[in-house]
Design goal:
With 178 residues, the protein is of the alpha+beta class. It has 5 helices and 8 strands. β5, α4 and β6 form a beta-alpha-beta unit.
Length: 178
């Protein structure tokens, strides 16, 4: 897919938190939580341990005008929560589709935050896509429940490489028509 200039990334507001674009000041908390082995193992792209400079590079890429993925911080400061409770992203795909990915900081696990963030992104549909995809590792039942709770339907089994695990891991793939 050819990348083009991206319009300003919207802030998506909910009663509990805002999904807002990343800022340089988020780097420290993102690295703190991404360095948690439990977080890294449930993603395809976060290594464990996190190497020096990786988070800075990630934030810099996410803030560029030309990119193939928009990344939002789950920012709970408006309700007394943390400035970084997790991240959620949409990666542009062809045929009017995108793929959602997310992780939640351990202090906010089991609070419904992931479901609320995914639902907010589905409702906003900032790329105006017809379809959203997502995949989760089969040993991450909580993320599978998030997706089904948000109206995603099971599509099939696959596998993805996990950098933190240094292995291919079985996944479940989900689809949400918008």
């Amino acid at each position: 897919m050819e990348m083009g200039k991206i319009v300003a990334q919207p802030v998506i507001e909910t009663d509990r938190f805002d999904l807002r674009p990343l800022r340089k000041s988020d780097q420290g908390l993102i690295e703190h939580y991404a360095s948690d082995k439990r977080v890294a193992r449930m993603t395809t792209s976060i290594p464990h341990p996190v190497p020096p400079g990786m988070t800075e590079d990630f934030v810099t890429r996410a803030m560029k005008d030309v990119r193939d993925e928009d990344v939002w911080v789950m920012d709970g400061t408006k309700t007394g929560g943390s400035e970084v409770m997790g991240l959620i992203s949409l990666e542009r795909m062809d045929r009017n589709q995108c793929e959602v990915g997310y992780w939640v900081a351990p202090p906010d696990w089991n609070t419904g935050l992931a479901s609320d963030a995914v639902q907010a992104l589905v409702n906003a549909n900032p790329f105006e896509n017809a379809t959203m995809f997502a995949s989760v590792f089969q040993d991450n039942l909580a993320s599978a429940k998030v997706l089904t709770h948000c109206g995603f339907e099971y599509l099939g089994d696959a596998e993805s490489y996990s950098v933190a695990r240094d292995a291919n891991v079985p996944t479940w793939t989900y689809l949400r028509k918008l």
